[in-house]
Amino acid sequence: MLQHLFENRCFALAGRLLPLLAALGAVSCQQAVEEEPGPITRVENPVIYASNYPMYYFTKRIVGEMGEVVYPVPADRDPLHWRPDEETVRQMQRADFVILNGAGYEAWLTMAALPPRILVNTALHFERNRLIEVPGGITHSHGDGGTHTHAATATTTWLDPSLAIEHARSIRDAMTRLMPRDREGFIERHNELAADLESWERELKEVFQNRPGAPLLASQPVYQYLEDRYSLNLRSLDWEPGEMPLDGEWTALDRLLEEHAAEWMLWVDDPLPEVASRLDERGIAVVVFRPCSRPPSEGDFLTEMRANTERLREAFAPWWGHRFPNPVMKILFSISTLCLLFSGCLPRASAAGETADNTLVVFIGLGQSLMVGSQSGDTLVSVEPVWPEDALMFDAVANADVRMGLITAGGEDRIAVLDPATLTGFAPLVARVGVGGGNRGETPMESFANSLATRAREAGQPFRSLSFTAAQGGTRYSGLRKGTQAYANMLTALERAKELAGERGWRVRVAACLLKHGEGDLGNAGYLEDLLTWRSDIDA
After folding, report:
1. Which long-range contacts does 175-184 make (Cβ < 8 Å, 24+ apart)?
2. What's the confidence (pLDDT) of residue 7?
């Protein structure tokens, strides 16, 4: 009787048939095929079901017009939490294939009697070594067999393009077994899909290289495979896009930001405007990255992934690709085209309570001889303050200067340890001859800050800035990077700026680091990587 029920593919109710089916090995927690099946007799016009939208999209691309591909999940349901009704199970039992995501995605398999021969576990090739376990687990029982626990597994495998390609390969192989005479067509269409996925992979890699190691947040824990593939510094919350987080959740976020100073938060969909506004107050930009487990309202899987990637590209853009949202930022870009702005120009958003009156915006100059005013001691221009309250420099016990710890003698620079006690306050920014017997004079920082202050006032957005340099003439990257005295002086000056600003009731916001450098590294084949590391160290 049981065999008859199974062959007729009737729906198995958990309370009555599951224990018997489990005893016969017909149903288990992972019902997908564990071994590659042999060739299948050719069928005409096959019917193929797919358990979520990515698997549907991959299957549709590979099958083309050679069969009917069905996505059975209602449009308003998340396929991860969906369970097919009895009629849907009967239809799936009559299908030639049911394409599964695998990785524990299809929890409903324990409630449906589907013949193992029609199940295609597309994660089969990688589930033994590339699945990601997440904290927690699921405990349940099968009839009289007692309870047992499965390790919880992250399921959005397709967000790693390399795993998406593996899913597609499994579908290609299944279709060639089902319809061997159409093998060449399946292979051709699979190769086209794989090429598209590889192109998406390259785009994502390029985007994430713009912000290596940058702290990120995620609204929900669904990006584990994206995080793993690109080594992201990601912390996940559990916030729904259509809900306002509770006060306690905002408090927990503020505590998290103290140790994980993220500027971007990935969302599975657009959050409520008031949520986006409160994140903006904390200096966090919303970046929508839809996992696309269900069909998108427009386009398809690949257009959605590329839209996700473009939103990331816009958010992470370095200075040469940034689309500035206000006039002052555009000015900052236009007058510093020869400089690399490590921190990506002025901040996108102010923290809660920041105003022009209580904030000190800091600009730091980095590099070699041009950044310390090489051979300009006799041709000072900015000798009088242009905006004495807007553009500032450090005041000092003696030799007030924008160069932190730089001493020049005989045309050669050396960096002394900067004593923060010698920095006594703030003074209007002017150009001065450097310390020592060398010819160091006006740097790019004076004209930069004064010009920016002028344009900011013209735009009706005045602000207060502090400028200084932590640079050294004739010095390669290796002499300026993290761990050197020049780098240490930069941190010392910044800490002193925070102390002095705090005495005045000001907050400090580092807006940008400007770089004039490269001559010393002309023969350095790894200079681009050095620059990215430099920026990453400073951003951290």
Report:
1. 175/62, 175/63, 175/66, 177/37, 177/38, 177/39, 177/40, 178/40, 178/42, 178/43, 178/46, 178/96, 178/97, 179/42, 179/43, 179/46, 179/66, 179/67, 180/39, 180/42, 181/42, 182/66
2. 35
- Give the sheet arrangement for strand 97-100, strand by strand: 68-70, 47-50, 97-100, 119-121
Confidence of residue 170 (pLDDT cuts 50, 70, 90): very high
By 3-state DSSP, what share of the chain in percent is helix, strand and coil, each rounded to 5?
40, 20, 45
What residue spans of 260-346 are helical by DSSP H?
Answer: 273-281, 301-316, 327-334
* C-alpha dihedral (250, 251, 256, 259), degrees to nearest 10: 130
The one-letter amino acid at 17: L
State residue 409 phi and psi, 5-degree precision. Answer: -145, 130
Task: Sort strands 215-218 and 264-267 into parallel, antiparallel or unpaired.
Answer: parallel
Q: Would you state the pLDDT for residue 372?
A: 85
At residue 58, the 3 state secondary structure works out as helix
Pairing of strands 423-428, 391-396: antiparallel
Q: Are 218 and 265 in contact (CB under 8 A)?
A: yes
Among 96-110, 140-154, 173-187, 374-388, whose mean pLDDT is lowest?
140-154
* Least confidently predicted of 4-18, 259-273, 434-448: 4-18
Amino acid letter, 472: Q
Distances (CA, A) of 417 to 411, 414, 420, 425: 20, 10, 9, 19
Query: How many CA within 13 A on the CB side of residue 293?
Result: 22
Bridge partners of 138, per DSSP, are 150
User: Which helix (H) or strand (E) segment is 199 a member of?
Assistant: helix 183-209
Bridge-partner residues for 147, per DSSP? 141
Average pLDDT over residues 110-136: 89
CA 214 to each of CA 74, 177, 263, 323, 535: distance values in angstroms, whole numbers, following the listed order: 38, 45, 8, 20, 10
- Which neighbouring-strand residues pair with 363? 467, 512
Give a three-class secondary structure readout of 520-535. HHCCCCCHHHHHHHHH
Q: CA 217: distance to chain centroid?
A: 8
Specify the pLDDT at position 111. Answer: 86
